[in-house]
Amino acid sequence: MDDSTWQSEFDKYRASPEFKVLNPNMDLSEFKKIYWMEWTHRLWGRVIGVTFLVPTFYFILRRRVSRPMAFRLLGITSLIGFQGFLGWWMVKSGLKDDLFTSGSQPRVSQYRLAAHLGAAFLVYVSMLWNGLSILRSHTLLSHLSSTPAHVKAIHNLRSALHAANLRPFRVSVLVLGLLVFTTAMSGAFVAGLDAGLIYNDFPYMGVGLTPPKRELFDPFYSRQPEPHSDLVWRNAFENPSLVQLDHRILATTTFTAVMALWAWTRFGRRFQVPAARPPPEMRSVAQLARVKETVFPAEVWKGVRGVVHLVWLQATLGITTLLYLVPTPLAAAHQAGSLALLTGVVVLGSRVCLPRAVQKALNHPAAAMRTGLVATPKLGLRTRADGLKLLDAQQ
Hints:
This protein has 395 residues and is mainly alpha-helical. The chain is 68% helix and 2% strand. The protein is built from 15 helices and two strands. It has helices at residues 3-14, 17-22, 28-61, 67-92, 110-144, 148-161, 167-192, 213-216, 231-238, 240-267, 298-323, 328-351, 356-363, 365-371, 384-394, and strands spanning 272-274, 292-294. A two-stranded antiparallel sheet has the order 1-2. Helix 7 (167-192) packs antiparallel against helix 10 and helix 10 (240-267) runs antiparallel to helix 11. The longest helix is centred in the first third of the chain and has 35 residues, at 110-144. It is globular and about 75 Å long. It starts with a helix and ends with a helix.
């Protein structure tokens, strides 16, 4: 852009509440820095939308995906468009005229910020889950067409994942994913209210573990007359002190839940099986000890350990960000850490579920080979996607 265009854009910014209240001394060179950050963010969002939209319509029009997958892809595409709308809606909240009044803090609405971030996380999780499902289906289906040992291993995997003692674990992983997502959304409220700039110590908040009750439930944030019927929820979402406390509680709960899940899977009797007892002639006092093995497939146990490592990393980033007064690099790393932790939980969840295509191939092997769902020397590997579509129609 030339100088006149830059000046025009800068004049628009100078008319905003943020400039007049927070940055009245900002010059053009400083404005260019924040302009390029916002421009890059918007452009990157549009690139994501286009790079997903174009292949989606190509694969659907060319009938290269099954009907259920087509609906999933269209759903993700719609969610990406909704995410862009939420971004515009969020930015608009920071341009209201009432932010010019004395005592106002020019910022975007923390509610809209959380909605924008939540939609972004949902888009990411949807892409990740479907991608993992496709890769896992491809790997297992290719093994079904190979050696008998591979086929037997997949049957054993299905038996292990469908075992009754694994169902509570599967539910626990789902609840853990919701907890991680909720904690990340509470972090959006912390960021939207700059709540990380107060009580920069841990685990205490001032002189105690929590601020005084009067500060946590301040009538100042209520918009209803006595007896302040909205006192609790207004403070929970608009009072920086209570918002930070809520985030601490949720983060601590998430950390405890991950460690409890690890201990449950590691030491819980439900998930342990005794090793085979030696023959009578080989028994001794040492050999009679009951050596236990886990009932989990190896990839599931690795996923649990991965989530444990990620939650320790995320907790360290969160505490460090708070102690150092929320520097931008640490804050960005902490937000990325929440996404990494959610990714770990989603990956773990995908490992305790057997893709539907594999279940159909195991239940109906003849139909799977006839339609190309499972490759044969005659059909080859290229017909597998079409076979899945036909098998879905037959079922």
